[in-house]
Amino acid sequence: MDFSILAPNGPVLLTPVVHADKRGFFMETFRQQEFEEHCGHYTFVQDNHSRSGANVLRGLHYQLNHPQGKLIRVIIGEVFDVAVDLRRSSPTFGQFFSATLSAENKQMFWVPPGFAHGFCVLSETAEFLYKCTAYYDPDDEHCLCYDDSSLHIPWPIQVKNCVTSPKDQQGKSFADCAKFE
Question: Is 163 contained in some domain?
Fold first, then answer.
């Protein structure tokens, strides 16, 4: 596995070694010891799987009291994945990090606790798997506005025409959203 660290104590892009032949392929998608060496000491407690159609944009979500680290991969289709640093004490506070994840490139994206996370679908459909370091708590859910102009996120779809949830349409601006210390 190749670990490309995008920022100190921040997101990491993981690229697995894929063993392919005429039968198909095999790859290791997680090894605790290597993950800890490159990403930190975390325990995963919940796995999630979502499916979304073309031009769907989900996020930017986070939990404040029970922050979740997320190890993300796409098994069908392609997404543009984004993490925004909401940790006031971080040298990358307010910056976003992104990766294009697809079934084809098989890359994974580690988003540490303290980041808002979201993605948009670039293919007809996408299936998205992610491991979480904390349980989902609907009473602790927060949403950062995905099209806040101060973030300068270069979404590769027309955000004014994207499909979002009512909750995501009511996300708070970066200036007004709750942040981590």
Answer: yes
**Residue 3 maps to a domain:** no
**pTM of the full structure:** 0.95
Whole-angstrom CA distances from 76 to 46, 51, 53 are 20, 9, 11
Q: Is residue 74 part of a domain?
A: yes
Which of 42, 62, 117, 130 is an active site residue? 130
Query: Is there a catalytic annotation at residue 130?
Result: yes
CA distance linking residue 181 with residue 172, whole number of Å: 18
- pLDDT per position in the chain (181 positions), as tens? 999 999 989 999 999 999 999 999 999 999 999 999 999 999 999 999 999 999 999 999 999 999 999 999 999 999 999 999 999 999 999 999 999 999 999 999 999 999 999 999 999 999 999 999 999 999 999 999 999 999 999 999 999 899 999 999 999 999 999 999 9
Q: What domain range is 93 assigned to?
A: 44-169
User: Is 61 assigned a catalytic role?
Assistant: yes
Query: Which entry of 61, 62, 117, 146 is annotated as an active-site residue?
Result: 61
Instruction: Provide the residue type at 84 as one letter.
Output: V
SS3 of residue 168 by DSSP: helix
